[in-house]
Design brief:
Blueprint: H1 13-17, H2 20-31, E1 45-50, H3 60-68, E2 76-81, H4 89-94, E3 100-103, H5 107-114, E4 119-126, E5 131-135, E6 152-154, H6 156-159, H7 162-170, E7 177-179, H8 185-189, E8 194-198, H9 202-210, E9 215-218, E10 228-234, H10 235-240, H11 242-261, H12 265-274, H13 280-292, H14 300-304, H15 311-323
Parallel strand pairs: 1-2, 1-3, 6-7, 6-8
Antiparallel strand pairs: 3-10, 4-10, 5-8, 5-9
Amino acid sequence: MTSRGNRRFAPDRRTLLAGAGALAATTVLAGCNRSEVEPDADGRIRLRFATDWRAQAEHGGFYQALASGAYAKRGLNVQIIQGGPGVNVPQLLAAGAVELGMGSNSFIPMSLVAEGAPVKAVAAFFQKDPQVLIAHPDPALRSIADLAGRPFLLADASINAFWVWLKARYGFTDDQVRKYTFNPAPFLADPRAVQQGYLTSEPYTIEKEAGFEPRVFLLADEGYPSYATMVLAPNAFARDNGDALRGFIAASAEGWRDYIQGDGKAADALIRKDNPEMTQDILDQARAKLKANGIVDGGDAALYGLGTMTNERWQAFFDVTSQAGVYPTNLDWRQAFTTQYLPGRGRG
């Protein structure tokens, strides 16, 4: 199997970045007191936004906002800086190389809090984390609970991320874990194996190139509380540039609405320009899955608007991870996020 130009079967950026906040926090402490923003020649505020991987449909709403002029009409000159292997978003924020960055999952802002770094999640554009478990076709598999006793192919970083929740929820044990090296061969060779993946990527690649439709379990549909595709902002930047931050979030929400519910061709063109190895078939199936599964506009977003976050979800995430020893039980988890820059102030 090949990656077809995407991140597939290369190290998953979500597992690579799950602990990145803690690793970069010392630097972030030193660097995030900078809050200067420069206007361009037309007086628009320059904002550099770092994504968590190479351009793809999972970033489509931001590219749609760029393509449609949603940022420009709010007085913003936004540059999307795509990530990739070795790109650490918290370090870019710390160095002042970008004003805003993407957080792949709730572990990143929570780890930054644990290290005392002055950065918060200010919006969450994926209400469901697209993390999935993938199994071979088997009519006996109806839920994640049915995977008891099977070997799990997991990346090292996943052990201290979603595996913590799986163990707490289903009683899975560490002796089920096998090392996942981002090579699908062990999964394909063992009909009882379970492999980690991303809803919009690995299942499609397996189906297309291995010739069968795998059984896919979306963790969020069984209660996994992590957000995804969050906007991270240093506290000083948010404090000193509140209007620009509100404009960025509102424009991004508009972009995500249009990308999911409307015509995504303009965004897809920009994505393929930034990432020439991306193919339209991958974009199309990913966008369809985002829409069909309510990743962007389902859950609380249907009630409170795109990008929303709630205290209840953050506390649920903190409760399970702190009880598992990932974070100290006295950590002030509320410092991981703020809803004050959301359109309508969200639901705090």
